[in-house]
Amino acid sequence: MANLQHIRRRIKSVKNIQKITNAMDMIARSRFNAAREALLKNLPYVDKTREIMRRVMGQMRGQEYEHPFIKTREDLIAEQQEGAGKFLFIVIASDKGLAGSFSSNVLKEAHDTIEYDGTSENTSLDDDGEEENFHKKNFDALKGIKPTAKRTPKQQRQMTATGGIAKATGRSSGTKTSSGGGEVREYHDADYIEGIELITVGRKATTHFKQRGYNIIKSYHGISERPQYKYAKKITDLVMERFASGEIIDVTLIYTQFKSAISCAPDDVTLLPIVTDDYVKSSANLKEEYIYEPDVVSILNDFLPRRIATRIYGAMLHSAASELSSRMNAMSNATDNAQELVGRLNLFYNKVRQAGITNEINEIVGGANALE
User: Which domains, and CATH codes, for the chain?
Assistant: First the structure.
């Protein structure tokens, strides 16, 4: 028979944990409201910068203009085939745990993106109407020629760097095994990933990739829940400096997109280079033409860094709201589970106690019968 004292101790322990999870739920709820408010306030500015970018790029149709951040589709294809330069990935995760699958999902997305082998031909559009992840597209298919079985230099570099982890049958960054309806994922460690550099936001991302031998050139901690524009500006300055010098030829941003309080999904977008074809196509429906002073080129040169910083800051706000909503839901579920467990333990405690009382009564009755 179970010990009543042991059951009482367990009930007390579960109630104490319930108090902690309930407190963390309330804290996450209050912080989530602030993070969502900051995200909503930032959306109009993001929309306006997108509109300005489309109009300026559309205004430059037919003009000869060279900029290290702006390239045509043909230039990108030629650059990919040369195989010069490194690939930079900005990964935004969390500083703390107890947020459900928030960090694991964005890290899976990061591995899928970094170790992608270029076999998928799916095309998606981001919130700017631009084609996401140009490095994931089949470049020959975009040019209108038949794709060949030969991999591009970038795909070959990724396959070599990851030791063939990215299989030619799809986007895979490790071994997936199914057990009981769940998925267990194994990440393959790499001593050194040649041609790949990372900028991480959040201790979870830094620890994860550092343990696997990735080259992390910069990391930011303690800002995942309360992002600030100044950190997005620092990341932008570093990215632009390395991109302008030719050290990197592709910059991808990986973060968690906030959709609602109960829904968020990891996403990745290409920050640099900016493809003129996408903007020209998206600005085709804009009928109005503006007069710019001093000129379109000067405005574009000053506006590009701000546009990139805005997108990074927006991704940080999305990630913060997603992290807090995930933590809020996880702690709420933990509190409810603790309450349910306490109820089951109380029922079990009463059953054991009643069984003990019944046993004592039987002993008393048996003893009285023996004396007769």
Answer: 6-339 (3.40.1380.10)
What digits encode the pLDDT tens for the residues 27-57?
999 999 999 999 999 999 988 888 888 777 7
Give 216: exposed, middle or buried? Use CB within 10 Å, 0-12, 13-18, 19+.
middle
C-alpha to C-alpha distances, 32 to 194, 254, 325, nearest whole angstrom: 39, 21, 6
Cα–Cα distances (Å) from 110 to 179, 187, 201, 337, 343, in that order, read: 24, 11, 13, 32, 41
Residue-wise pLDDT for 298-352, tens only, equals 788 888 889 899 999 999 999 999 999 999 999 999 999 999 999 999 999 999 8
Residue 294 sits at the vertex; the CA angle it makes with 293 and 297, to the nearest 5 degrees, is: 105
Strands 174-179 and 263-272: unpaired
Give strand pairing partners of 125.
131
Q: Which residues of 297-311 are buried (b: 16+ CB within 10 A; e: fewer)?
A: eebbeeebeebbbbb
Q: Counting Cβ atoms within 10 Å, is residue 158 exposed (0-12), middle (13-18) or buried (19+)?
A: buried
How far are the Cα atoms of 77, 150, 226, 263 from residue 27, in angstroms, in the given order? Answer: 49, 53, 14, 19
| Lowest-confidence region among 51-55, 214-218, 266-270 | 51-55
Q: pTM of the entire structure?
A: 0.74
H or E element that contains 265: strand 263-272
